[in-house]
Fold this protein.
Amino acid sequence: MNDTIAAAATPLVPSAIGILRLSGPGAVEAVDRVFTPFRGGPMRARPDRMLVYGAFRDREGRVIDHCLAAVSRGPHSYTGEDTAELQCHGSPTALTMGLEALFQAGARQARPGEFTQRAFLNGKLDLTRTEAVADLIHAETPAAVRQAAGQLGGALAREVNGIYGALADLCAHFHAVLDYPDEDIEPFEAEELSAALSGAAQRLDGLAATYQRGRLLNEGVPCAIVGRPNAGKSTLFNALLGYERAIVTAIPGTTRDTVEERVSFGGVLLRLIDTAGLRDADDEVERLGVERSRAALERAELILAVVDASGGAVREDMDILRAVEETGKPWIFVAAKKDLTRNSRSVGCVIGSDSGPAVLVGPASALSASVELSAKTGEGMDKLERAVAALFPPDGGEQAGALLTNARQAEAAGRARAAVERGALALQAGLSPDAVVADVEEAMSALGELTGRTVREDVTARIFERFCVGK
């Protein structure tokens, strides 16, 4: 990190403001080569974080913009190095010319995530906060924003460090007794070790339990829309998205493949999957579509089961609803085409019944709600939105930011929990304390990967692949 990097911190599209960012030992000097304040001395003579108005010049010295500049010297900066920013008008051409001038002044193009990577390597951010930056950039719902902001504030790091610290105290006590036998140090008791391992295991179990919610918060809830052909699935899919994404016709079997899109609905990020109608198909192409629909049903974590309310439930509907119920996953019964049923009774369903209006009963049912709606007119969509929101409330009782949100974090926490379990079993088997402490140290190593204490270089490389250039 002995060089100076530069990048546009805002997209290169016409906008009111465009920001160019630098970091590295030559950041301030590079700005002085391209920026001339209208009043006062150069930027190297200015205090940190003071906005200065002046002329920004291209590589030939010609003025390309009148803008603001500011510097922040390390270690009191985002990256821990000398940094600078030029706040320009948002002309893509002017910003590109400005970047070229900065490159000629000694900077090089920053790689994706390199500013945040330098902040991590310089100890300004631990790895949980680093990942929170990327999560915040990609957040698509208010709940995801709050989670990322809390993690950026250190909520997850504090929980991990608390478990790590308790295990570190245990190891320190053991090594003190071992290394200084003549000192007046309390002996290492098996009861103490057992209690510490039990406490760590409980906290790790609680941490691991947050992953499911954190993953859905960040990645979205896979939501399959299923039903027989022409039940209104694609119309509902388009209504949820707010635009015509799937082809809709009166001909049954129009949808031959799964169509997937992401949408925020009821404050929940849904990964919608519009499926082909579930039925026994003679057409080879349609049969492949039905197979993919059944696969989507298996991987979904929320199912919208759609029945055409204008014609009443038929045996084919009941077979589909039975299959949905047997998944054991939360699902919502959607009686569609309400605009065509003004003079008809409401359609319900009962697993095991062949026809007729009814209501799903039974304590083991995974049915979460029953909604009548018209995706065409929008009537009843608000009820569906409330039903989805109730299934995935924004606050699950955890502290904001204390969720595990990706597979890397969950895997490291799982290895720490397994190591603690091995230590507890070794203790119960009567093995010596040093054998137990070896497992404790392995758990600490796994926890260290969560925050970056012991992280490998290839792991950090994968993490920063998610970042955009300029961040």
About this structure: DSSP finds 15 helices and 13 strands in the chain. The chain has a mean pLDDT of 83.
